[in-house]
Amino acid sequence: MNPNSDILGLGIESSCDETAAAVVRSGNEVLSNCIFSQISLHKEYFGVVPEIASRAHLEVINGLIAKALHDAGIGFSDLSYIAATNRPGLVGSLLIGLQSAKAISFALKKPLVAVNHLEAHLYAPFLEGHSLEFPFIGLLVSGGNTALYLVHDVGNMELIGKTVDDAVGEAFDKVAKFLSLEYPGGPVIEKLAKNAQKKNILFPKILPDPEENFRFSYSGIKTAVINYCKANPRIPKEEIVFSFQERALEILARRLFDAVKKFGVGRIVVAGGVAANGRLREIIDEYRSGDETIIIPSKILCTDNAAMAAGIGYQYFVRGIKSPLDTDVYARG
Q: Cβ distance 284 to 1 under 8 Å?
């Protein structure tokens, strides 16, 4: 099969608190990308409630699929394959998207491609004109994941480092909750940090010593913020979040470029919800030596979306790899 032929794929994503459906042509052209965010449903709980998430996915999934097809100007019969995330994520949420994909696959007699949500994130920038070349160092940063990969090929991601406790996005949420800010914490902290009058670094560097396994840890900085606030109740929140954000993001860039140096791979992909943070992009640019190729998707493709699922699904489809209809979902990757 010619991988450059006009192949249309439907992608479905429901791993956590976004329901999404998208149509992608030939693995690199997004024809539609429909996303329903559940932030308003989980805001009062300051985190995702699995039961609420599953119910919301079920309520909107059919309408989103119909809208994705309509926006792309195609019908079900035009599809070549159906891709859906089946790991990692909330089991109940994943089931909604995967079962919908299975039903369409069965009815149309078109291949089902179950994809890894994390690999899909790292594929996102290749939907925006970047050529898919291997190997590359992938930094995946979100509310549920903080990890470094050496990506050798499609389906071949070598984990070289990950968080030993909280993910970076989770740390942003917890600090925001302690400071009585809004949920999710990432966008509100980024905005508030820009208003800090005194841009002092109040907290120690996270894991200052070189780490051969490139591990991350965020429980310490979270505790440091809480203790500092209790000891200094009059310090403006803007100054607190500025210092927190600097330390939380600095370790990401430091570990990333340590991996670049160790493995001799200068092609870098940064993806996931936290990749939308403007300050992270600045810090990464500050750390670069000038020889690296740094690829970060646009903000809409940093968040959970179905275009990335359809995109990586295309790569499996053209390789003749499909999933059986009894494919299951998995909480871990």
A: no
* CATH number of the domain enclosing 24: 3.30.420.40
Same domain, yes or no: 57 and 168: no
Question: Is residue 325 domain-resident?
Answer: no
CA atoms of 198 and 307, how far apart (whole Å): 41
- Over residues 264-305, the pLDDT tens digits come to 999 999 999 999 999 999 999 999 988 999 999 999 999 999
Please state, in angstroms and rounded to a whole number, the distance separating the CA atoms of residues 204 and 154. 38
pLDDT score of 1 more than 80: no
Question: CA-to-CA distance for 175 and 189, rounded, in angstroms?
Answer: 9
Whether 187 and 73 share a structural domain: no
Residue 185 backbone dihedrals phi, psi, to 5 degrees: -75, -30
Cβ pair 54, 90 in contact under 8 A:
yes
> How far is residue 244 from each of residues 26, 34, 156, measured CA to CA in Å?
42, 33, 34
